[in-house]
Each structure stands twice: as structure tokens, then as C-alpha cells.
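Practice record 12: protein with flavin-adenine dinucleotide.
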Amino acid sequence: MSLPATAEVVIVGGGVMGTSIAYHLTRRGVKDVVLLEREPFLGQGATGRCAGGVRYQFATEVNIRLSQVSLPMLERFKEEIGVDAGYRPIGYLFFLTREEDVQAFRRNVVLQHRLGVATEWLSGDEVRRRLPNMRLDDVLAGTFHAKDGLADPHSVVQGYARAARRQGARIFTDVEVQDIEVQGGRVRGVVTSRGRIATEVVVNAAGPWAGVVGRMAGVEIPITPLRRQWLTTTPIPDLPPDFPFVIDFAQALYFHPEGEGILTGMSNPNEKPGFDQNVDPEWELVHMEAAMARMPALARAGVVSRVAGLYEVTPDAHPIFGATPVEGFYVCAGFSGHGFMHGPVAGLLMAEILLDGRAQTVDVSMLDLARFAEGRLIREYNVV
Ligand SMILES: Cc1cc2nc3c(=O)[nH]c(=O)nc-3n(C[C@H](O)[C@H](O)[C@H](O)COP(=O)(O)OP(=O)(O)OC[C@H]3O[C@@H](n4cnc5c(N)ncnc54)[C@H](O)[C@@H]3O)c2cc1C
């Protein structure tokens, strides 16, 4: 299929954001939507490398509200989109080993309760009782929310892409956006590896590469690519059947069931910004030592697969939604390591921003690009 010469809207990026935006725009009746992805397949960027975690437990009101719309969309994905998103509410259990984290999480739980999220507060003994196969002598307390859990990124991307196509969107892979034409302060077109498309609206949904795409239009978007990695293991014999998504908050170390084994990851606090998506074998050793100290059974397990990908981190670990100083150039990126779970609501909100002038379902006006220049940053504590 050759590229069209014109489009009403061009979306750059075929991850969860781009495909969700394409679906929601076409559902609202915009027919002439073109999505461009440079990889041979959709969902090969951050989305395809994500750990699949979805949660309501956040430390800011806006993130909780985003989850309160987005997770139910994943829950009823099959009804709406025709594909099962694989939502499994296995619960997230954060455990805490530092007094300052206990204080911060107490405040988070008060906020979560005020907004209707029924997170349970757990004593150290309760955490130890729930996780009998882990070494947790130093745990002071924890939190658990039963409707947090897992979903399948590939099903979500493919589901949105298929539904968007059915509604008229044209989706192209193997097409790289190389430049964005701006004249008189507004978008006029995109230049790609397969030709030019004239358009007055471009949505930058390029995830960790959104800063690069922003510069094509002369717009500075403060998104830092940071490598994160995880691995999966062979079966763990003593894994309890109700083992949840477990996070050792102080170490940014996590575990969740994957088949009969475990998926585990740990964030390297010294990772340098960059686009390298190869697994760092030295960090894997540090990670596995920490993981085995917590879950001794891992010493007898083998590694099945290893994955590295890029977080798209903003200065306040919150996403960027909406307009930029260039008229017709919009951004939906910078979800800072939890964008998969917010992909459904993000597409809905971007359609509202483009068609109604502002997001109606959740107020994300404080998540505009201008906040960085104006010093209106948002504080988020639960970044893993
Ligand atoms: C290791 C890891 C674990 C994670 N775990 C979780 C988790 O448990 N839960 C969660 O909610 N989130 C998680 N995340 C974060 C989540 O994956 C991202 O926030 C989310 O996928 C971002 O989606 P996106 O569509 O913005 O970006 P992407 O999926 O990266 O999509 C952007 C796309 O743009 C394309 N692109 C870039 N430049 C161009 C160009 N010039 N022309 C054309 N196409 C272009 C890229 O190829 C890419 O496919 C994790 C991320 C990583 C790396």
C-alpha cells in the first residue's frame, strides 16, 4: 500500500499510545487517520518490552484517576475491541524496608482511599505471611491492592490496531518519520522514508524517541530514554498459586508470576540516558544477586528469556499530554515507566483534546508541556 499524499491526522509511533489514539480518533468519526511506525511490526518499542503490570496504587491524584479509567478499559477490552487484553487481577504488593517509605506510603494509602481505591495496609508480619517463599526479615510494612495485576501488551496493541483499521485508519509499518514541516508556526506535513504526507495535525506518540521527533518540529520535549531490563525463569517449585506482583520498593526490585516461573526486574539507579536496548550483563548479575537474596528458590531456576527496553522519563515522572508551541503538533508521551497501563485512557483523552479542545474524562490540563518551562512539576513517589 503506498502512502497517501495527504491526511487529516498523522500519528508518529505504533506502540500502545499511537494505536490507542488511532482507535479513539476513528471511533469519534475521524476517518482520515494515518499511523506511521518505523519498525516492521507494531509494538516493538517500549510497549513490546514492558513487564505488563497494571495498578491503581499511585502517589498522585492524576495517576490514580488515569488508572481508574484505564484499567476498567482493559477489563472490558474484549467487549469493546473484540480481543482479550489478558487482564489478570493478581494484586500488587509493595513492601517497605525504610521508615521514610512507610511514612510516604501511609500518605499514599490515605489519598488512594479518598479516591475510592481500597488498598490494604499490611504489617511486616502480614507481608511475611503472604509471601512464604521470600526472605523478608527487614520488612517494616506493605500495601496490597487486589485489582492491580497484569495484562498483555501485544494483545492491546494488536486489538487497537485492528479496531482502528476497521474504523478506517491506515496503519503503515517500515515507515520512518524523518522530518516535520513547520511553516508560519504551524504543521504543514511530515517527511518520511517513503515520501511526504501533507497534514495539519501530527501527534507525537514516539515513546522514548518523542524528544527526537519533537526536535524535528523545533519543539523541545524533555523525555529521557533510560534502559530497564527483566528476565523470566524456568518453573519455581514452591511458588504459591496466589503469588502477586511483588515490589521491593527500596531496591526497585520486582517479581511476578510468568507461567510457572517468575518475571523479575530491577532498575539500575546509575543507568546513563541513551538508546541502547541490549541487556546489560553486569547489571543482570547485580539484579540476580538481589533477587536470589529475596527469593532463594531462584538459585535453582534457569533463565528462559531476557529483555531490555527504554523507559521514557520526564523530569517529574508524569506524562505529557496535548498541544505544543507549534500549532497542530501534539504530544502524548513520557509515561515514565507506567505507560502501558495508561495507554487506553491516554488514547481516549488525546481524541478529546484534538476534537473537543480539552480532555473531558480526566482533567490532565496540569500535564501540559508548558509545565516544565513554567516550573509546575508534579511529584510522584511510586516510580519503580
Ligand atoms: C523494561 C520495561 C518494563 C516496563 N514495565 C511496565 C509495566 O509493567 N507496566 C506499564 O504500564 N508500563 C511499563 N513500561 C512502560 C511502558 O512500556 C511504556 O510507558 C509504554 O509502552 C510507552 O508506549 P508508547 O506507545 O509511548 O511507546 P513505544 O511503545 O516505544 O512506541 C513508540 C513507537 O514509536 C516508534 N518510532 C519512534 N520514532 C519514530 C519515527 N521517527 N518514525 C516512526 N516511528 C517511530 C518506535 O519504533 C515505537 O514503536 C515498561 C517499560 C520497559 C522498557
